[in-house]
């Protein structure tokens, strides 16, 4: 037994005619009626609009001290291995040091100390997420990189009671299963994270 092929175009035309009859559209002249029916048929044939598509952002997810964070990829210049870290005297404890990244001196921030999370020693798994915005550049230490994920802005929670203080200040929202999305622009623009302003002269 052969499967019947459904003529969706014919069904749309019949629905458009029925709609015109109900609304009194067939009281128009033949040309006007045909124009109305064609416009309604085109509208019925369009794919449904998904408003959330315009509200999606792409984030790079990473782990720090067993917690999962993310930052919008538009702020991420690159991800690299932590190599040749040089300590800088007279800087806050959360500044792990600086590293030479292809001729550029990059300040490295340890989010575990900055967010007052449980500290673990640096391991070979550490990666540096390089953020950049305009002339500002900053490296964030991460235990692991979990990959890029799409996030729907309208689905993000504003915050949680457990995220307070400095973490709350740099939080853009909570997405999915406890993915804390950080505000990359705020991190890049914060004076406390600029090494050259923290050195005691």
* SSE series: HHEEEEEHEEEHEEH
Which architecture of the largest domain per CATH?
Beta Barrel
- Supply Rg: 27 Å
Task: Tell me the β content.
Answer: 25-35%
CATH hierarchy class name of the largest domain = Mainly Beta
Q: What is the CATH topology of the largest domain?
A: OB fold (Dihydrolipoamide Acetyltransferase, E2P)
Strand order of the largest sheet: 8-1-2-10-9
Number of strands: 10
Q: Which stretches are low in confidence, meaning pLDDT under 50 for 5 or more residues running?
A: 197-201
Mean pLDDT: 77
The SS-based structural class is: alpha+beta
Spell out the CATH superfamily of the largest domain. Answer: CheA-289, Domain 4
Number of helices: 5
As for the number of domains, it is 2
Q: What's the helical proportion of residues?
A: 10-25%
Distance between the termini: 89 Å
Shape: elongated
Essential attributes:
single chain, 201 residues, 5-stranded mixed β-sheet, 23% helix, 10 strands, 2 domains, alpha+beta, disordered C terminus, 5 helices, OB fold (Dihydrolipoamide Acetyltransferase, E2P)
């Amino acid at each position: 037994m052969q499967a019947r092929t459904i003529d969706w175009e014919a069904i749309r035309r019949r629905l458009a005619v029925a709609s015109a009859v109900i609304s009194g559209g067939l009281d128009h002249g033949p040309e006007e009626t045909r124009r109305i029916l064609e416009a309604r048929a085109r509208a019925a044939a369009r794919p449904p609009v998904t408003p959330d598509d315009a509200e999606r952002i792409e984030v790079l997810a990473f782990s720090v001290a067993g917690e999962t964070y993310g930052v919008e990829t538009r702020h991420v210049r690159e991800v690299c291995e932590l190599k040749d870290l040089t300590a800088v005297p007279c800087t806050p404890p959360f500044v792990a040091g600086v590293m030479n990244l292809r001729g550029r001196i990059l300040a490295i921030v340890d989010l575990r100390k900055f967010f007052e999370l449980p500290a673990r020693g640096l391991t070979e798994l550490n990666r540096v997420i390089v953020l950049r915005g305009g002339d500002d550049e900053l490296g964030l230490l991460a235990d692991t990189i979990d990959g890029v994920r799409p996030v729907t802005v309208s689905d993000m929670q504003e915050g949680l009671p457990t995220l307070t203080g400095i973490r709350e200040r740099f939080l853009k929202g909570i997405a999915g299963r406890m993915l804390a999305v950080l505000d990359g622009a705020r991190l890049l623009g914060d004076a406390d994270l600029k090494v050259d302003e923290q050195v005691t002269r």
